[in-house]
Every structure is written in structure tokens, then in C-alpha cells.
Amino acid sequence: MGFRDVGDHGRTRSLDVHAVLFDMDGTLVESAAAMDRHTRRWARRHSLDPEKVIRASHGRRDIDVIRELAPHADPHAELAWFDHLSCTDAAGVRAAPGARRLLDALPPRRWGLVTSATRSVARSRMAAAGLPLPDVLVCAEDVTAGKPSPEGYLTAAARVGAPPSYCLVVEDADVGLRAARAAGMPALAVAGPPGPVHGHRIAGLGALSVTAH
């Protein structure tokens, strides 16, 4: 896998990896506008500060945010509300630039998706973005602990049959990069949060190239 580090004057670097594990929202799929709408509606539903909820939710499972910020609500009923909204309102959801080209260049069993979204939402958003679902799909309900726990990425590594150190994680959220670090996996931050990150920072998926071997 070749990539151009934004902090290295556009120089192309390379990593020898057996599999690439992608986050979905903010990485393969541009869904920020839809997620912002949904989060603000949920915040108003519980008389919470929308900006606080948005900050708390980036990269995390909805069920974890619900339990943290609305502890007296029924978390499963709230999650069902969130999922229904997410699956029926996909306005503005689209593939990130370069996503389709990159996925088409990867062998089918050499990439997977590790997302904090539920399976129904992941299927809906990938379809709205016109992107294929991989054979290896690890969603919110597949793990007992969401990001920054490494559980999701370690589960995906086992499913693709690759050692964690030979799985490259591509992420946009700090919690996801922390999960990759805890899993012992190299990582690329797509745009990424300000400040230090685990791994290298790239400007977007267009900065990646694939050489199969």
C-alpha cells in the first residue's frame, strides 16, 4: 500500500500489509451532514446540548452515547429510533472521493469494514454511497465494547486471517485511531483530528495506491 503523508511534502511511502480495515463514516462515506441532522434531533428529543452530543459521538457507537448522555432512557428503544432515522434519511450521503477506485483495486478478501454503526445502518449508508459491502463487516452489535476498544479491529483481523501487525487501519476519528493503536495495527488518519495521531496523516483516499502481491 502506497500513501502520501501530508507532513512529508507529498513524498510517497509504502507499507507491506496483508489487509486493509476501513472505518466507514468520515472515511469511506461522507455522511457528516446526515449524522449532524440526526444527532441534533436526538439531542432535542432529550433536551440536551446538540454541540455536546456531537462532540461526544464522533466515531462512537450510538448505544454507548445514549447510555452515557441519556442514562434514564431505554437504550434499545433509543437505538431503534436512531437506526430508523439513519436508514430512512440518507440525504447527502455519498462516497468519499477516491473510495470506489480504492476498493475496486483491493482483492475482495483483503479488505474489511469496522464501523461503530449498526449493521442495518452500515448496509444503508454503503448502498446510498454506491459502495460494495466487504465479506468482512464488523458492526456495533458484533462487539461487546466499541471504539476505542481494539475489539472490532482484532475481530476483523481474525476474519481476514491476517496478523494484527499486518492489517492497516484507515480512520478519521480519534477513538478509531486509538483502537488501532491498542490492536497493534499501523494506521492512516484521513484528514484526521488536529494534533498528534497514531500512524500517518493523509489528505484523503486519493493519497492511497494499491500494489497487490
Could you explain the architecture of this structure?
By secondary structure, this protein is an alpha/beta fold. It is globular and about 50 Å long. α6 links the parallel β6 and β7. The chain contains eight helices and eleven strands. The mean pLDDT is 91. The strands form three sheets. Strands 7-6-3-8-9-10 form a six-stranded parallel sheet, with helices on one face.
Blueprint of the fold:
Blueprint: E1 2-4, E2 12-14, E3 19-22, E4 29-30, H1 32-45, H2 50-57, H3 62-69, H4 75-88, E5 94-95, H5 99-105, E6 111-114, H6 119-128, E7 136-138, H7 151-160, E8 167-171, H8 174-183, E9 187-190, E10 200-202, E11 208-209
Parallel strand pairs: 3-6, 3-8, 6-7, 8-9, 9-10
Antiparallel strand pairs: 1-2, 1-11, 4-5
Helix pairs in contact: 1-2, 3-4, 4-6
Major sheet characteristics: 6 strands, parallel
**Poorly predicted runs:** none
Alpha-carbon distance between the two ends: 10 Å
Order of helices and strands, N to C? EEEEHHHHEHEHEHEHEEE
- Tally of DSSP β-strands: 11
Instruction: State the helical fraction.
Output: 25-40%
Overall 3D form: globular
Strand content: 15-25%
How many helical elements?
A: 8
What Rg, in angstroms, do the CA atoms define?
17 Å
Please state the structural category.
alpha/beta
Overall mean confidence score, pLDDT: 91
Order of strands side by side in the largest beta sheet?
A: 7-6-3-8-9-10
